[in-house]
Amino acid sequence: MERTYIMLKPDAIRRNLVGEIIGRIEKKGYKITNMKMFTLNESILREHYAHIADRPFFPEVVEYMTSGPVIGMVVEGDSVIKGMRQMMGATKYLEAPIGTIRGDYSCNERENLIHGSDALETAEIEIKRFFGNI
Q1: Which residues have C-beta within 8 Å of that of residue 93, sequence separation ≥ 6?
Q2: Confidence (pLDDT) at 64
Q3: Which long-range contacts (CB under 8 A, 24 or more apart) does 51-55 make?
Q4: What is the rounded distance in angstroms from the CA atom of residue 98 to the CA atom of residue 60?
Q5: How far from 89 is each of 30, 41, 85, 96, 101, CA to CA, in Å?
Q6: What would the mean pLDDT of 125-132 be, rounded to a whole number?
Q7: 51 is catalytic
Q8: What percent of the chain has pLDDT over 90?
Q9: Please, what are the domains in the chain?
Q10: Which of 105, 106, 115, 116 is catalytic?
């Protein structure tokens, strides 16, 4: 059984899409084993997005990701990392196929609703970052 970290971003909460997105995860057959709502700060965002923290657009990412609460989840299932990434769709919403979360609900480049770990190692790091040693 594989596990991954999934985060519903502030726009998913603001647009009342939480139930729809969680429903898709559960209907796929994945199990949400931990979930919490919290607010991010710049320090944790610098850690989480270290790969883009030196980019000129990073202040916009901080502004967006601190604009409201997020929901973090640990999701388990067979090949859940690949499956969730397919379900989410491409990061750039215009490249995300209809039928994916971003393809169906994203409406601009800045706000893309959801984050999901991209590999087993990343998932474990992100789960530990947001949930501790579980």
Answers
A1: 102, 103, 106, 107, 108, 109, 112
A2: 97
A3: none
A4: 27
A5: 17, 26, 6, 5, 6
A6: 97
A7: no
A8: 96
A9: 2-131 (3.30.70.141)
A10: 115
Cβ burial 47-71 (10 Å sphere, 16+ → b, else e):
ebeeeeeeeeeeeebbebbbbeebb
Counting residues of the chain whose pLDDT is more than 70, the rounded percentage is 100
Structure tokens at 108: 């601009």
First to last CA, the chain: 15
Tokens of 82: 């690949």
pLDDT tens profile 39-91: 999 999 999 999 999 999 999 999 999 999 999 999 999 999 999 999 999 99
**Pair of tokens at residue 133:** 């040693």
Specify the pTM: 0.95
